[in-house]
Amino acid sequence: MKHRSLGLKLSLIAIACSFPVASIAQQGAASAASNVATATTSAVPKVVNYSGTLTDLNSKPLTGVTGVTFLLYKESQGGTPLWMETQNVQPNKSGHYSVTLGSTTSRGLPADVFVSGEARWLGVQVQGQNEQPRVLLVAVPYALKSGDAETLGGLPASAFLLAAPPSRAATSEDATATDTSSTVTPPPTTITGSGTAGFLPDFTGAATIGNSAVFQSGTSPTAKIGINTNAPTATLDVHGGATVRGTLALPTTGAATAAAGKASQPETLAASSFNSGTSTAVTQTFQLKAEPVGNNTAAASGSLNLLFGQGTSAPAETGFKFASNGKITFAAGQTFPGTGTITGVTTAAGSGLVGGGTSGTLNLKLLGSCAANQILKWNGASWACAADNNSCGSGTSVGLSAPASDFTVSGSPVTGSGTLHFGWNVAPASANTANAIVKRDGSGNFSANNINFNSLDGLPLGDFAFSTFENDFVADQFFAGNGAFMYVGDPGCGSGFAAIGFQGLSGCNNYSLLGNGTDTFLNSPSGGTMHFRNGNTEYMYLDSLGALVINSQVDGLLATSFQSGANGIIGEDSSGGDAFGVWGINNGGSGYGVVSTGPAYVAGNLTVTGQIFAGTKDFRIDHPLDPANKYLYHASIESSEMMNLYTGNVTTDAKGEATVKMPSWFEAVNTDFRYQLTVMGQFAQAIVGRKLENNEFTIRTSVPNVEVSWQVTAVRHDAYAMAHPLVVEQTKSEQEAGHYIHPELYGQTDKKGMMWGLHKEKMLALEQRHAKMKEMRGRQQPSAHPVVVASRAPVVSRKADTATPPSKK
Fold first, then answer.
1. Which stretch, 79-83, 417-421, 509-513, 694-698, has highest mean pLDDT?
2. What region does 735 belong to: left with phi over 0, alpha with psi -120 to 50, or beta?
3. Edge to edge, what strands does the sheet with 485-489 contain?
4. 667: closest CA among 20, 23, 21, 19?
5. Which of 555, 561, 576, 685 could cross-link 702 (Cys pair, CB 3.0–4.6 Å)?
């Protein structure tokens, strides 16, 4: 008998998957190709091809070099990876890629990963992303186990002697057969283990079997398959979740004929409700089913119907369904919240209407049982037929009468036909004409010698002024303006007050100018604005909410404090919201929103969205060893580059290696990395094994288990840093030239300070104002200014002994 030694070749199957990934730095493919060549020189190549598709989080294909980590697990979820490697993947323009697993080392995939015969799951994780759902490897990668077929206990066949074949008599077949090999086939390995009838067997070891999760009861065609159950109740009974990565089809129950259409297999969903009347649980079954519509017609179609059944009854149509054009048919009696339901129109007795109904087209009309010339009339309780007593009757004559002192009348009455004549005795006139009725002229005026009256518009004669005499007005006298009136009189503020107003005077709230002989008050009615003008040009106004707005061609507001401890201007927000105590705005140019020519103090947090320029940037805190009496200062580290500094400690492992992982945002913020390593606790050498890539770098030491202190310095390249690069040397502007930030350090006067170059006019005005204030303080007595009492906290001041505004009566 001829024996041959069979060499196994591994045929690789590619599994296509799609995963969202993040971009990582590209690495060369030369070393990977070299490793693949080395790993495939053995009889069984220790590498596996794998293909997939890379997309971003918006499912768009990735086309740049992308870092992907591949991991092999024993479990479909959780667990520790048995093997892992990271490769730089170059997909094509559609995002498709192919990699060779195990190509990053010359050893390829470790053979012991597959020798147990257990299932292996492949996980794929992209840099910066979570690991994607794992994929079960098909049978081909397990052919790596076939490498053992050429060995026995790890030794080649040449290490063993062949057993002598059993002796037997020679035959003619022996004489004609030529033995081309001295190798004999070894007996198969014994398979051990046990199982339960009905369960699909599963290799739990290299040569051991046991029960799997799949169970079969009965035989075809009535067999039932259970997954995670040994008591299936359907053809396929799955206890647990299921993921269908494709279309789940429920086909028709058969082909339609002219006699009848065919529905689809139903999608059944069941619930269980406890019936207190029968003290039993009752199954509530819903079904969705595609059903034929218009079978054996030229408009054959279909609909998606909802069926329901309770207990053991078969689900029946509910009336709710979707037509093929998306229109919905609702179950009979369906109502919708908020719209109401009309069941009919009826006419009540006495309404004067007849008709109505509960279905079809409803017609309403007026009551038609009245007699001729009758009308529908409301009698206090209902509409009823009644005689028309309001229409015009018939007349026999027309007459006219008028006062004889003013008019003449002729031709009255007219009984059949004729002319009535009406005339004036004296025609109306606007002139001073005796016995004439007054007629206004085209301007609304008329003339008269004397007009006698006791009152005018309800006011007595004493309320009116004489043009040639002094007048003693009564209270609340008003004067006419152009479309408005000015009132002078009692404002309703109590005894001793007089006021002027423009909307009447009452309630002590609508006056404009109020005085009591000592104090003077300005006021605008509720909701109004108080305006201050010069030459009818408005420079300031106080709105209805108390906001003072100043529009000035020079300094808008100048406030001077003459007393030590008081403040020139205080801005305070007492609303408790997100308003501001002081808000300075520069709407353009080279000015500033807020300027302080002396020290500035911020008691809370300082937020700056732009750049900070300073001679030095220090921190000052209470001294930790003597906080009550001392400060502790530290200066900032300065650089000609926008630098970030990161430090830490790490200990290398038994191989003298350690990986330092930086935050996920690290390379998005930084670039141009510089490294510094310091060995601690022993003499050893330390180097950066691999520079920063994918937000991590490695450290290697000459001996294992070495603690290393590391420092990474990097240059910022975030969006703000790129948009505002640091220019180390800059030329001063034309206004700044010849002036200094600190003129005293260079032997210069204060007028060589930078503000004198940028805003000379303002500094001159400030200098003159300070001189005038100094002169006023030396010349005036303290009593010339109101006493100001400075509060300790909060930062407010109050004026002492101010006049109290009047209250309403």
1. 694-698
2. alpha
3. 477-480, 485-489, 498-501, 511-515, 520-522
4. 23
5. 685
